[in-house]
Design brief:
By secondary structure, the chain is an alpha/beta fold. About 35% of the residues lie in helices and about 15% in strands. It binds arginine (ARG). The site of arginine has 14 residues, from loops. Pfam families: Arginase. Keywords: Arginine metabolism, Hydrolase, Manganese, Metal-binding.
Length: about 280
């Protein structure tokens, strides 16, 4: 069973619309009742390359503890969060709990593998995968414990459409398996999923981290960093069906819903349907 929890992270990008997004979902959708991990505000010096570092760290530690608690009570955590920095907490919990070869499926328009040395925006939501690999700012790599949370050979990224040049180098240097969105459209989503599932078949546990900006913003407007084109709802449901039934998925995230940028509850309604779909698998 998946147990839903939420955290309204926004310090990883600074988009105000994320702050109320979890409350908005809870107030408007019956199936989105959840425990909330608060976002923690901490004071710290301004750093252009690591914005709101202290707040992001404190919040991700809270997320990691909540995810770990759900796992130890025998359930699978399903986190709905604001910006994608939250995945440093949620994936850390899965990794520490499952020990060893934890796999990660990262469904996103962005690889989010910048470090404090490569970032252009200074937004930490562009860095979680790097941090989980033990790269970059040390305080982002130590949630729950000091272990390095992921091995680069245990990651698959699906749907990339916006890779910063230094990110392309990091992906190459660490031999990270990724499928860009246009490659997927050319070779077929089912084929790419089959390959991804084979690639992670040695992993005893897998975490699926789904960013709504992996989808076409014309279809899903409620995201903070929209990139043209992307998956549609059928694609996402197919990915869930294949990944969640053929891999030992222990935990999942749904992130970056920004209700201020949503239109007529299109994105909010999708989040509700996605949760229902996932919980029904
Ligand atoms: N989770 C996201 N929406 N990430 C967007 C990251 C955009 C850009 N690559 C950055 O590092 O700032």
């Amino acid at each position: 069973m998946f147990e839903l929890y939420g955290c309204p992270t926004h310090y990883g990008v600074g988009a105000k619309g994320l702050v109320k997004s979890i409350d908005y979902l809870t107030e408007n959708f019956k199936n989105l009742q959840m425990n909330k991990v608060p976002e923690i505000t901490c004071k710290g010096p301004f750093r252009a390359n690591l914005k709101n570092l202290e707040s992001v760290c404190a919040t991700c530690e809270g997320i990691a503890q909540q995810g770990y608690h759900i796992l130890t009570s025998g359930h699978r955590p399903l986190m709905i969060a604001g910006d994608h920095s939250a995945a440093m907490g949620s994936v850390s919990a899965t990794s520490v709990y499952t020990k060893g070869e934890t796999g990660l499926i990262w469904i996103d328009a962005h690889p989010d593998i910048n470090t404090d040395k490569t970032t252009v925006t200074g937004n930490i939501h562009g860095m979680p995968v790097a941090a989980l690999l033990g790269l970059g700012e040390l305080s982002l790599t130590h949630f729950l414990d000091d272990s390095i949370k992921l091995k680069s050979g245990n990651i698959v990224m699906l749907g990339l459409r916006d890779i910063d040049p230094p990110e392309a180098e990091i992906l190459k240097e660490h031999h990270i398996r990724y499928y860009k969105w246009d490659y997927i459209m050319e070779h077929g989503l089912q084929n790419c999923l089959n390959e991804s599932i084979d690639y992670l078949s040695h992993c005893p546990a897998v975490h699926v981290s789904f960013d709504i900006d992996s989808m076409d913003p014309k279809l899903m407007p409620g995201v903070s960093v929209p990139v043209p084109e992307g998956f549609n709802e059928d694609d996402v449901f197919l990915m869930m069906d294949e990944l969640l039934t053929r891999l030992p998925v222990q935990a999942m995230d749904i992130v970056e819903f920004n209700h201020e940028l949503d239109k007529d509850d299109i994105t909010a309604g999708f989040v509700s349907r996605l949760v229902e779909h996932v919980q029904g698998l």
